[in-house]
Amino acid sequence: MRNISNQAGDVPARSATRKLRRAACAAGVISLFGLAPLAHAQSLGDALRQTTFQGMIGAIHFDYANNGHTSKSTHSFAIGGHLIAHTGSFNGFSVGLGGYTAQSLGLYSKNDTHYDSELTGSYFGIQSFRQAYLQYQTPKVEIRFGRQLIQTPYANQDYYTFNPRAFMGVAGVVNVLGNGSDKVDAGALSLEDNPAAFSVFMTRMFDYESRYSSSFTAANRYSGTKPTNGFIAIGARYHGDVGSMQMTAQAWYYDFYQYAQMVYGQLDVVQPLSNGQAIFGAVQALTEGNSAGNSNNIAALTNNNVGSVNAHVYGAKLGYSFGDGSIALVGDYAPTEYNSFHHGGVVHPYNDNTGTSFTDTMQTGIANLGPGYAYGVTTSYAFLNKKLKVDVSYIRYLARYGFGGDSRNYTYGGAYGFSSTNYIPNQQLWALDASASYDLSSVLKGLSVAEDTDIAQAENRAGYTQYNHNPYFSSRFYLEYNF
Question: DSSP string spanning 304-317?
Fold first, then answer.
């Protein structure tokens, strides 16, 4: 589980990589967001009798030392989980319903200045039906209406607490070349892992529900309590072989109504070698070139200094995989675009640092830091017959306009949408992420444990005493049982 946004801008959002949720997948998340065998019901009654259930229960504990480089340490604990029901298919139609909950049990007092509401919100608990949709599915088409989860590069679940970000509207996938799965899909709607060679994703969302909230809102992370018109997204993905090389290409367009338009693209290639080895690489590009749906909304974010968004991010990755391990060099670059939001910062109302950018770490990412660059190395290894999985990343950042760390970029009261006017020119930062997950299915099928640790250090701070609290240390512990 990883990554957070804030509901209507009321709580500083934290970011994270996507690694731990994927590690949990290895421990049984196929039942969490899986594919049940397609049941061709002969009647509505048969469809109801063929309903399948998947769920998860667990405990999560977060600790943040020097939270956001502020010298304040915070912590949060919750038990919770979810239960998802999905009916059988009758003439292609089925219904999905998913309830989610997180409870603090009062381990930390709400009146404690070190209490963190990240897991359970402002009232020691969150309960919500985040999924309630009608689905139509054939091998060529899948479409959903209602409350649902989607997974796209810049509008997604950010799933690292008990409550993923959810959306309300309509979304669909069309498989142009090849067919989709022949099983009833009960997972987040996505192009990832789609067996079709070429597929298209389309969505129109009106509301969303953050991980801090038990209700849907028409606002977004930038608008406060002011409603927006939501967003549309259109994406396409192709994967296939080019000679001996495997290739995957994707392209996306977003219109975050009243805020910005975005185009994102990514190309991945894998060249298999002998004995299970391979060379892999990828490039990515994002642009919000001189866009703004409503200049007054952007002006509100930039202290009335500017009414436009003009951001670009370019990235590359080159790696080597061998057996159960891999290592890669990664880099991202964001040019300075003066007199725009963050002088070239990305506006992304419906996601955080979920690992879309190659150099995202738990608390730091180039999209939020604004113009600058990042580079480093990422590794992944599996041990003990793949029961133990370890991921480590070391990334260095240079922010043209630094404020001690990424978390400060979730407030926008200064000029051009920065947190203040007193920035650190060309600030250097580094982050070390280390996560480990262990599959305990030998003890109890579906049981897993995981720990995710991040250390973020802000450098060249001389003369800026408000940023001298270092390092920013984060620890996230998970115990999950998937059934």
Answer: TS---B--EEEEEE
Query: What is the radius of gyration, based on Cα positions, of the chain?
Result: 22
Residues 109, 152 contacting (CB under 8 angstroms): no
Top pLDDT among 94 and 420 is at 94
Instruction: Round to whole Å and give the CA distance between 352 and 368.
Output: 8
Cβ proximity of 72 and 80 under 8 Å: no
Is the pLDDT at 36 greater than 90? The verdict is: no
CA distance 142 to 180: 9
| Long-range contact pairs involving 236-242 (C-beta distance under 8 Å, separation at least 24) | 236/191, 236/198, 236/199, 236/200, 236/201, 237/191, 237/194, 237/198, 237/199, 237/201, 238/177, 238/197, 238/198, 239/197, 240/197, 242/269
Which has the minimum average pLDDT: 134-143, 152-161, 462-471?
A: 462-471
Residue 181 structure tokens: 């799965």
Contact 301, 308 (CB under 8 A): no
Structure tokens at 398: 């240079």
Rounded CA gap, 342 and 406, in Å?
13
CATH of 7-482, one of 3.90.550.10, 2.40.160.10, 1.25.40.10, 2.40.50.140: 2.40.160.10
Which residues are CB-contacts of 147 (< 8 A; sequence separation ≥ 6)? 129, 130, 131, 132, 133, 166, 167, 168, 209, 216
- Residues 50 and 191: their CA atoms lie apart, in Å, by 26
Q: Which residues of 110-140 are buried (b: 16+ CB within 10 A; e: fewer)?
A: eeeeebbbbbbbeebbbebebbbbebebeee
Beta strands in 7-51 (DSSP E): 35-37
pLDDT per position as a tens digit, 264-278: 999 999 999 999 999
| Global confidence as pTM | 0.89
* Residue 436: C-alpha distances to residues 24, 119, 126, 225 (Å): 10, 21, 27, 38
Residue pLDDT, tens place only, 365-389: 998 888 999 999 999 999 999 999 9
